[in-house]
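Dear support,

Our group has been running a series of protein-ligand predictions, and this particular one with guanine is the one our PI (initials K.S.) wants archived with full inputs and outputs. We had some confusion internally about which version of the output was final, so please treat the block below as the authoritative record. The input we submitted was:
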Amino acid sequence: MAVIIDGKQSAAAVTDMVAKAAARLEQEAGLKPGLAVVIVGNDPASHSYVNAKSRMAKQCGFTSVQHTLPEQTTQAELQALVETLNTDPAVHGILVQLPLPAHLQSEPVIQSIRPEKDVDGLHVVNSGKLASGDLTSGLISCTPAGAMILVRNQHGADLSGLNAVVIGRSNLFGKPMGLLLLAANATVTMAHSRTKDVAEVCRRADILVAAVGRPCMVKADWVKPGATVIDVGINRIDAPEKGEGKSRLVGDVAFDECAEVAAAITPVPGGVGPMTIAMLMANTVTAAYRSVGRPVPTF
Ligand code: GUN
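Confirmed final output from the archive:
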């Protein structure tokens, strides 16, 4: 039976350091880190993520502002809000929750966020720095940064000689995760919906990372015995066994059967999810430190 990686515990360690760094910045420079979270529309899952982010920001001692915009918000209105936040000196981090409603284009919005306030790490300046191997001067996407801490806790900082497979190639997760693993010297394969025999590809992985959004897709026979399995999926499925109309969260990995084969595995919930929020806090305090030219703490 695999070790179950405790994302809540690792996240608490990060947010504890973030809160201390924030307190120090306020004491020494009179500056409180500020995070602005923007959400458009009524998607319940997005609202629950955003509420958790705002709550944690307050817990870390930040100023936290949430902008909740109606479903019918126009592109121009959303971009005008981003522009206001870009020039607000009390705001060090801006996060526009994705996905946006279908009538809005996310890319122009993301690219209009000032790179130094882009705590999602999605601006081309930040993703480009990561792609060129600069892991220190930009901001790195929160979920891969958090997943990488969990990998590091299992394997150390140097992944030389290890095969890593990432399933999924999104800008938000798969691509930056692949680049982080590569920067740590892993031999990286990016698998996706057009990959031939994905199970066979996955079986070569010492570190298997799944981010596809398909409940329980990764089965036990996809997992190399002794592998570390990182499950980034959050899928809500019907759970009639809990009562009529009830649901539960599962990942992209069939947890119980894969836990029989892996050496270490993240649960859903309680694995990567809490790390995403913790790294958002870390990115925000980092942006605040940089805004006054102070050396940035490491997390
Ligand atoms: N939606 C799901 N995950 C994320 C994330 O990390 N950032 C943003 N902005 N939206 C998301």
